[in-house]
TrEMBL record:
<dbReference type="GO" id="GO:0005829">
    <property type="term" value="C:cytosol"/>
</dbReference>
<dbReference type="InterPro" id="IPR044135">
    <property type="entry name" value="Met-tRNA-FMT_C"/>
</dbReference>
<feature type="binding site">
    <location>
        <begin position="117"/>
        <end position="120"/>
    </location>
    <ligand>
        <name>(6S)-5,6,7,8-tetrahydrofolate</name>
    </ligand>
</feature>
<dbReference type="InterPro" id="IPR011034">
    <property type="entry name" value="Formyl_transferase-like_C_sf"/>
</dbReference>
<keyword id="KW-0648">Protein biosynthesis</keyword>
<dbReference type="InterPro" id="IPR001555">
    <property type="entry name" value="GART_AS"/>
</dbReference>
<dbReference type="InterPro" id="IPR002376">
    <property type="entry name" value="Formyl_transf_N"/>
</dbReference>
<feature type="domain" description="Formyl transferase N-terminal">
    <location>
        <begin position="1"/>
        <end position="188"/>
    </location>
</feature>
<comment type="similarity">
    <text>Belongs to the Fmt family.</text>
</comment>
<dbReference type="InterPro" id="IPR005794">
    <property type="entry name" value="Fmt"/>
</dbReference>
<dbReference type="InterPro" id="IPR041711">
    <property type="entry name" value="Met-tRNA-FMT_N"/>
</dbReference>
<dbReference type="InterPro" id="IPR036477">
    <property type="entry name" value="Formyl_transf_N_sf"/>
</dbReference>
<keyword id="KW-0808">Transferase</keyword>
<dbReference type="Pfam" id="PF00551">
    <property type="entry name" value="Formyl_trans_N"/>
</dbReference>
<feature type="domain" description="Formyl transferase C-terminal">
    <location>
        <begin position="211"/>
        <end position="308"/>
    </location>
</feature>
<comment type="function">
    <text>Attaches a formyl group to the free amino group of methionyl-tRNA(fMet). The formyl group appears to play a dual role in the initiator identity of N-formylmethionyl-tRNA by promoting its recognition by IF2 and preventing the misappropriation of this tRNA by the elongation apparatus.</text>
</comment>
<dbReference type="GO" id="GO:0004479">
    <property type="term" value="F:methionyl-tRNA formyltransferase activity"/>
</dbReference>
Length: 321
C-alpha cells in the first residue's frame, strides 16, 4: 500500500516511524514549514520532517492546501505532487493545516486521521490537555475517516487508555502517540483486505477541546484544589501553570490535594516545608511539590526553597496585578 503522510509534531513522528518500520511505501511527507525556535530563533524543521529527511523520504511544506486561498501556488504544487504519487491513502496526524475537499477525495481510500481522544468527546485542537483538565478517567485513540467537518468523520478503530492520577499532558501524550502508531498500522492492514467497518460518531457526547491559550496559565486559587491540581498536570509542559508570589511569577508544575481548615483566603500560603508549599484554595488546599522561578529549572520543593524563601501567611497575587 502506498501512502502519503501528513503531520508535524512529535506525536505524528511516532506514527510515521511505526509506519516506516511496518514496511509501508511512503513516497511523500507533508509537514508544516520550518518555524523559528530556540534562543536564536533559527528556523527548525518539524520532528516529522527530521525523520523523513533522515530516511530519504521526500518532504513538501506548503503553507496552505487551499487552491483559492492565500498561497495558491503552494497548494497547486502540492496537488501536482499528490497527483504524481497517486497514493492509496493519506495518513494525517496533528498536521496543522485544513484539508480541503480535493485532498480528501484524491487518495483511493481517502484520508485517515489519528485523533487523540475517544470521539466524539474532545474534538478539536487540544484533546489531551482537556481530558486531563476535565478529570476524565480515560481517553484513547480514534482512527477516523476524515471529512470536511471538525473531527466529525466516521470511526474506523477505537482503543481506550486509562488516565493515571499522576499523568501530565507530556506523559499521556507519549502513551497516546505509541498507541496511535500501533492502531494506524492495524487500520491500514485491515483496509488492505477490506476489513474496516466505518461507524458514524454518535450525536450525543460531543465536546470541543479548544486550543490552549497562554492566558489560561494563571492559577485561580478560588477554584477547588482538585481542579487546580488537574490544571497543573494538563498545562505541563505548555504553558505551565503560574502564580505570582513576592513579585515573582512562579511556575507550579506539580501538587497534591490536601485537606485544609476553612477560613483562609484562597492563595494564602498555609505551610512551608521540605515536602512542599501548602496553599489554600476555594475548596481544600494544594501542596505544591515542584516549582520553578523565572530563569531557573523545575525543582522539587525542598531544593526550590533553598534559594527562594516562602513564608506562611504570604498570599499569591494575580499575575495581572
Amino acid at each position: 500500500m502506498k501512502l502519503v503522510f501528513a503531520g508535524t509534531p512529535e506525536f505524528a513522528q511516532v506514527a510515521l516511524a511505526r509506519l516506516h518500520t511496518a514496511g509501508f511505501q511512503i513516497p511523500l511527507v507533508l509537514t508544516q514549514p520550518d518555524r523559528p525556535a530556540g534562543r536564536g530563533l533559527k528556523p527548525q524543521a518539524s520532528p516529522v520532517k527530521q525523520f523523513a529527511v533522515a530516511h530519504g523520504i521526500d518532504v513538501l511544506q506548503p503553507r496552505s492546501l487551499r487552491l483559492d486561498g492565500k498561497f495558491p501556488d503552494d497548494a497547486a504544487q502540492a496537488r501536482e505532487r499528490l497527483l504524481a504519487v497517486q497514493p492509496d491513502v493519506m495518513v494525517v496526524a496533528a498536521y496543522g493545516l485544513i484539508l480541503p475537499r480535493w485532498v480528501l477525495e484524491l487518495p483511493r481510500l481517502g484520508c485517515l486521521n489519528i485523533h487523540a481522544s475517544l470521539l466524539p468527546r474532545w474534538r478539536g485542537a487540544a484533546p489531551i490537555h482537556r481530558a486531563i483538565e476535565a478529570g476524565d478517567a480515560s481517553t484513547g485513540i480514534t482512527i477516523m475517516q476524515m471529512d470536511e467537518g471538525l473531527d466529525t468523520g466516521a470511526m474506523l478503530l477505537v482503543e481506550s487508555l486509562p488516565i493515571a492520577a499522576d499523568d501530565s499532558t507530556a506523559s499521556l501524550h507519549d502513551k497516546l502517540a505509541t498507541l496511535g502508531g500501533r492502531l494506524i498500522v492495524e487500520a491500514l492492514e485491515l483496509a488492505a483486505c477490506g476489513g474496516l467497518n466505518p461507524v458514524a460518531q454518535p450525536e450525543a457526547g460531543v465536546t470541543y477541546a479548544h486550543k490552549i491559550d497562554k492566558a489560561e496559565a494563571e492559577i485561580d486559587w478560588a477554584l477547588p484544589a482538585t481542579q487546580i491540581e488537574r490544571r497543573l498536570r494538563a498545562f505541563d509542559p505548555f504553558p505551565g501553570a503560574t502564580g505570582r508570589l513576592g513579585g515573582a511569577v512562579l511556575k507550579c508544575w506539580r501538587g497534591r490535594v490536601v485537606p485544609a481548615a476553612a477560613g483562609s483566603a484562597p492563595g494564602t500560603v498555609l505551610e512551608v516545608g521540605a515536602d512542599g508549599v501548602v496553599v489554600a484554595c476555594g475548596e481544600g488546599a494544594l501542596r505544591l511539590t515542584e516549582l520553578q522561578k523565572p530563569g531557573g529549572r523545575r525543582l522539587p520543593a525542598a531544593e526550590f526553597l533553598q534559594g527562594h524563601a516562602v513564608t506562611p501567611g504570604t498570599v499569591f497575587e494575580t499575575t495581572s496585578a
